[in-house]
Amino acid sequence: MNLVDQVEAKEMKKEVADVHIGDTVKVHMRIVEGEKERIQIIEGVVIKMRGGGARKTLTVRKISFGIGVERIFPFHSPRVEKIEIVKRAKIRQAKLYYLRELRGKAARLKELKPVRPTSKAKKTPKRGKKAKAAKAASAAKASS
């Protein structure tokens, strides 16, 4: 490992969100105004990611009062408090520059469904003979 990689490794955050292009994210940014410090949340779609290591950046696009605004955030910046993923989208491009020309509903991305847990919960019958038998068995376990 060369000297540049060693310096970069010290500057990188230990825990970062697993962000992909097309995700809708909330970036919690620390803003300093005079002597006061506050957290500002910017929510938008990740249209571009570039760089690697400590130089990794993501570009977030949001519509503010009818005008498209893009902001570039350094991934490992101390000013970026945290990155929260709101929803994920199915995309087929590495850069989503085509969203700049689209307006309104046309600019929506197809949302990915959340991953279901692999183990299935066993359904218990609610009516009928099987339900009565199951209820009696659970009552017997509880009494003993």
Order of helices and strands: HEEEEEH
What is the arithmetic mean of pLDDT? 85
Task: Please give the radius of gyration in angstroms.
Answer: 24 Å
Give the helix tally.
2
**CATH architecture group name:** Roll
* Overall strand count: 5
Q: How are the strands ordered across the major sheet? A: 4-3-2-1-5
Alpha-carbon distance between the two ends: 64 Å
CATH topology: SH3 type barrels
**Low-pLDDT segments:** none
Strand fraction equals 25-35%
CATH class: Mainly Beta
- Helix amount, in percent? 10-25%
Structural class: alpha+beta
Oligomeric assembly = single chain
Shape: elongated
Biggest pleated sheet: 5 strands, antiparallel
Provide the domain count: 1
Give an overview in words.
This protein has 144 residues and is an alpha+beta fold. It has helices at residues 3-11, 129-143, and strands spanning 24-33, 36-50, 57-64, 67-74, 80-87. The chain is 17% helix and 34% strand. A 5-stranded antiparallel sheet has the order 4-3-2-1-5, with no helix packed on it. The longest helix is centred in the C-terminal third of the chain and has 15 residues, at 129-143. The chain is elongated and about 65 Å long.
